Amino acid sequence: MVASECAPVAQSGGLGEVVFGLSRELEWRGNHVEIILPKYDTMRYDQIYGLSVAWHDLWVPWYSGAIRTTVWFGYVHGRRCYFIDPHSPDNFFNRGHFYGAADDATRFAFLSKAALEFLYQSGRRPDVIHCHDWQTGLVPVLLYEMYQNVGMHTQRVCYTVHNFSHQGVAGENALWATGLSRPGHFLHPSRLQDDFNPGAINLMKGGIVYSNFVTTVSPQHAWEAVFTEQGRGLGHTLHVHQGKFGGVLNGVDYDVWNPEVDPLIPFRYSADDVEGKYAVKAALRDRLWLRHEYKPIVAYVGRLDRQKGVHLIRHAAHYALSHGAQFVLLGSASDPSVSDEFWWLKSHLNNHPDIHIEVGYNHELAHLVYAGSDIVIVPSIFEPCGLTQLIAMRYGTVPVVRHVGGLADTVFDRDYAHVPTWQRNGYVFHHLDHTALESAMARAIGLWYSYPAEFRELMLNGMRRDFSWADPGMDYVRIYDHIRHK
Length: 486
Prior knowledge:
Radius of gyration: 23 Å
Number of domains: 2
Oligomer: single chain
Helix content: 25-40%
CATH architecture of the largest domain: 3-Layer(aba) Sandwich
Number of strands: 16
Number of helices: 17
CATH topology of the largest domain: Rossmann fold
Low-confidence stretches: none
Strand content: 15-25%
């Protein structure tokens, strides 16, 4: 694995969860997995066991010279991880944050170059190099344009796109820096040239073009990326390479998100004995100072940004309060205007006994909210996979989702889905307006009040589904076997 994140040592979102969870599943299936990451100054060093120097002086070619790099090794909850630590005045990974610098494209171009140089110099010849998102898009380009000519000719690349919204569009400096010194060759529509800016390279496009197989994180999103605007301009490239492109649904780490073993909730429960959930609901009310009344709790857990449908999240809060439900929100916003919007909502409703708004992310509280709530909303504008609905279902919390991406692949409407009754596990709406959301919320809240036994059965349908890494892990093993023998 070559990636910019791995939970819990370096994580800003779902990417880190996937890299860790998939790596562990692959190891359980008998594969030898190593993960190459940047050595950020902001990593959770307390989550690394046995951190030590694996390679003192790796000289990574860079422009017309080379950067002396130390490669560290350590175990992250059992995963074998190597950390790239360049000794450069550019301080590529000592910025106090993972992303957001003006030279991000150059920083992660160095990660790609250093990862391959480390594999080459150390004699490592993995069957498959699995890369993730735009940050590692240059890995297959470098492999097939340079490193296969010096001995790495049997390695194959699987490339996973987690989010098409960020593609690593940059100037040609990254090409010169890494030794890909033929910009005329690479700035071509069939290779790395960005489709909207002919003078720029697109690192994600490079990953798609040069990899042996490309995945995104749900089958529905794979279709959306090719045939709708969800591909963010890469639809044509994906269409050209559709023979090596598909969707593999992400899994959930059930060692972390599981009410049967969760140490962060006060009572354990399972699909066979769900009574503990109601005790957790009372604990959630105590923690958040919500009144104890016979009402369902509707929750939102996740990032607060435009992708997630913030206008619908805000509306859901008001709708819940006016239709006999309580509402809990736990989310962080990187956009100051969105953050201000929810801080204002919090101050406006601060004394209401049926609502709690927590602007920011608290991992411990997230477990309590998932376990103690009855209904969770996921009204995303787009959602490549979505972990919120998968985690919620494990905790017996019924999802209300928009029919998009991975949400459409995992949540089946109780009333209208064309699947057997036992597979129906939530409520689904299609449009991005208040009326659509209200229709789904009304059905969920109405069932909770009027038919509690049927609501419990809906909960249990979700809890019984297996959204672990078992099936996705097998899918990836098949992909690896396929590209190894090409």
